[in-house]
Amino acid sequence: MLQKYKLGFDIWGLLLFLIIMIPNFIWFAIPAPNDLLRARSITGTVDTVASVCQIWMIAALCILKNRDRNRKMCVTPFIIIVAGCCLLYLLSWIVYYGGIVNVFVILGLTIPPCLAFLFFAVDRKNGIALIPILIFTICHLIYGIVNFVL
Fold it and tell me: Could you tell me which residues come within 8 angstroms of residue 37 by beta carbon, excluding any fewer than 6 positions away?
C-alpha cells in the first residue's frame, strides 16, 4: 500500500489545516462569552490519543501524496463538501462567540472539521490519512459529548 504514495508537500492540506485552526487561534487569544470550552477536560487519555492522531493526520495530509492522484487541486463534489464543512464550522464559532452554547453548537464545533479532513483525504485519494482522521474524529466526538453535552 505504501508503494502508491510518495513524499511531497501538499500546500492544500496545510491550507485546510490553517483554515480550521484560525478560530482556535482566535479563541486562545480572546475568550468567548459563556466560554464553556475553557473547562477542564475529563477525558485526558482520549484527548492525548486525539492530539497524537491530529499530528499524524496533518502530517499524512501535507506530506504523503498518492501517485495515482497526479492532477492539481480542482473543484470536485468532495471539495465542495470540504468547503461546506469549513463554513459550517466557522458559523458554529460565530454562534459560540455570540454567547449561544448548546448541543448543536458543540456538535458544530466537533463534527464539521473532522468531516472536512475526511472528505479532503478522500478527494486526494490519501487512504493512509483516513486512519488517523477516523481515530481523531472518534476521540474528538467523545471529548465534545462527554465534556460538554452529557
Answer: 27, 96, 109, 148
Q: In what helix (H) or strand (E) does residue 65 lie, and over which residues does it extend?
A: strand 64-66
Residue 37, classified by CB atoms within 10 Å of its CB into exposed (0-12), middle (13-18) or buried (19+), is middle
Other CB atoms within 10 Å distance of the CB of residue 98: 12
What are the tens digits of pLDDT across the range 63-80?
988 767 656 778 999 999
- The predicted-structure confidence for 121-146, as pLDDT tens digits, reads as follows 999 889 999 999 999 999 999 999 99
- φ, ψ at 149 (rounded to 5°): -110, -45
Residue count of the chain, please give it. 150
Helices marked H in 42-102: 44-63, 77-97
H/E segment holding residue 5 = strand 5-7
Nearest CA among 126, 109, 142, 1 for reference residue 58: 126
Torsion of CA 118, 101, 27, 140, to 10 degrees: -30
CB 85 within 8 A of CB 116: yes
> What are phi and psi for residue 119, nearest 5 degrees?
-70, -30
Residue type, 134: L
